[in-house]
Amino acid sequence: MAKIVSVEILQADLKPKVKRTDAVQAFELQETPMVRITDADGATGTGYSYTIGTGGSSVARLLDDHLAPLLLGREADDIERIWRDLFYRVHATTVGALTSIALAAIDTALWDLRSRRTGIPLHRLAGGAKDSIQLYYTEGGWLHLDQAALVEEALHAKERGFGGTKVKVGRPHVAEDMARLSAVREQVGDAWEIMTDANQGFTLDEAVRRVSRFQEVGIAWFEEPIHADDVRAHQRLVASTSVPIAVGESMYSLSQFKDYLQSDACSIVQVDVGRIGGITPWLKVAHMAEAFNVPVCPHFLMELHLPLCCAVPNSRWLEYIPQLDLVTTEDIRIENGRAIPSDKPGLGIEWDWEALDRVIVHRNRHTG
User: Fold this and answer.
1) Which CATH architecture has domain 123-340?
2) 174-188 and 204-214 helices cross at what angle (nearest 10)?
3) Which residues belong to any copy of the Mandelate racemase/muconate lactonizing enzyme C-terminal domain (predicted)?
4) Which residue did the predictor score with more confidence, 207 or 26?
């Protein structure tokens, strides 16, 4: 083991390649807080997390002012201890998005460093449960797209070997959502999956009403139908339908997932490594879901979720929504609609530092 001697805090701002809209918001900008940790032997690990347009500068300040200085002199391999120490150091601001996003950038950097030092790729270091994961497509299902565009994108995704597509729902009337879903189903056939996502846009009664209609087109799941804070409402929704209810991208702690699983308030866990606080808590949520016989289908960050999905046995789908290809030198490997994790040590992400330098808006180095 070697002590941490340098921590660099960065923020890279990445613009989405396509317009992204849903029932409550638009994805304006991927603010990408990054952490580079170097140990006394000269080994470096790089981690990151994200926002969808706001809060990035606050995350960078939290890292710079409160978290990064506490890493200096610590043993880099004490990942669990470091995570807990940092969590309790900023306990007054947890559980919350900004704190979890900041912790995620640090924790993923420490796992990257451990993987590089051991020479073991992350998907094996974290579990080694499988060697590939099925992909579904998201970029062609945004709420502003008309029916013709939805159908075209879905057929293109099917031709490329993806196992399904996600269609955003939340148009003013259920008939509008149904027209869009039915148009896609008619063209892709019954044996191809259609996932739906409401981005917390409905009340309980409207969610019950809509899922009863969505069931007619055989959807794979109904994602984030109601605000994530309301476990009881999700419990009632699950009891009302045979459609799987998916939650998780807007949850920031292990305890929140525990409450959902114990209450039979979800059917699919979409834990997001960038919002749960890093790889350390992500793995705990995934294994807890396994104990409840619930699959994991993580939200966003496909490059980082790829090795994690292959580390655990209960992963089912990986969301294909590319973003890091703007600042990496290698794309993820895809064969027959399945993503295959890198066998190189580290997170499996090869950063293009020249490209990153052009989009970095914050940089600060801590040494000791």
Assistant:
1) Alpha-Beta Barrel (3.20)
2) 30
3) 147-244
4) 207
